[in-house]
Amino acid sequence: MKRKALALAGLWCMVGGAQGAGFALIEQNASGLGNAYAGQAAVAEDASTVFFNPAGMSRLEGKQVVVAAHYIRPAAEFSGASTPSFVTATGGDAGKPALVPNAYYVMGLSERLRFGLGLNGPFGLATEYDTPWAGQTQAILSDVKTYNVNPSLSWQVNDRVAVGIGLDWQRIKAKLTSAAHPVVPAVVTMKGDDDSWGWNAGVLFTLDEDTRVGVNFRSEVEHALTGTLATPTPAVYPVQADLTLPATASVSLFRRLTPAWDLLADLTWTGWGSFDELRVRHAGSGATLSLVDESWDDTWRVSVGANYHAGDRLTWRFGVAYDQTPVPDAVHRTPRIPDEDRTWLAVGGQYRVSGQGRVDFGYAHLFVKDARIAHTENGIALGGVYDNQVDIVSVQYTHTF
User: Would you say domain 2-400 falls under CATH 1.10.10.410?
Assistant: First the structure.
């Protein structure tokens, strides 16, 4: 029973780690990628403001639909060994590409009141190691998805101030595997899911015709995942674990410098400190099967961007960002996601194909700091370093009618 509990703890640990700030996905539109998502709570140029600041819907006219897709290609190559050393293979490139879609709709209800709807995935992870490998008792496959439905309202208070609020219905699904033995890759599989509620709110201040400041807050979402743990014996156990996805708060600036140039900036806090421990219980008896100290830290993300309007139809975008990891040290870093601080360099643009339609596109490369790991799980200590990087390509179509 003890080995089964340890295997279970190893599986659930991955829910607490992924690329980006922990495992948050900031890729919620393509129009912001070229700016490294600087200024998103203040820009409010399309319906994706439903996610970044619902108050920004007040700036939109008519009805608008946004559809976006993002190809995210992380690379995570481990070099090191386990102690005791049963298998020397390093698992290959654990980075698993993912396609992340999102969609938004905004319409007017009255002169001052607007309604919006967002469909997105604010958290996610996909990693997979070649087997056998040195850390197979800690991780093989990690596949986590969230699905978020976000109806929102905005109210234009006066010429200077708009406010917005929204609800978030969120579903999480996870499939996680690891090896039950350090030599024989007999697979232990965990599947779990849950749905829960959260909320978001924002304010947009128009200081003058060239300057806007946006403030946005997204609440925690508390999940109580339930599922099964299947072992090679074979045996299946009902399990459950609580997971609180973090709150975020952003302050953004948009400033038109000249008719050709815009300046954008953003500071975002993410409350990963809420993920201090991981307690896994038997779903029937409620007995604690394992308790893992995570001790994650709150994080900050700072970004700066610029737009260059090359003409009536074409705009170029540029951006840079620095994004902290919530993982405090090598001991708490797991092979589910070898997360570290990262620097974004981004470029993109927008082409207006007609008076009603426009296409946005962007590319970002994330330079990730070497991620050192010294993590012990199931009696196996994994030590070494990860060479990481991430590439993101996004495209979006916006139609106003």
Answer: no
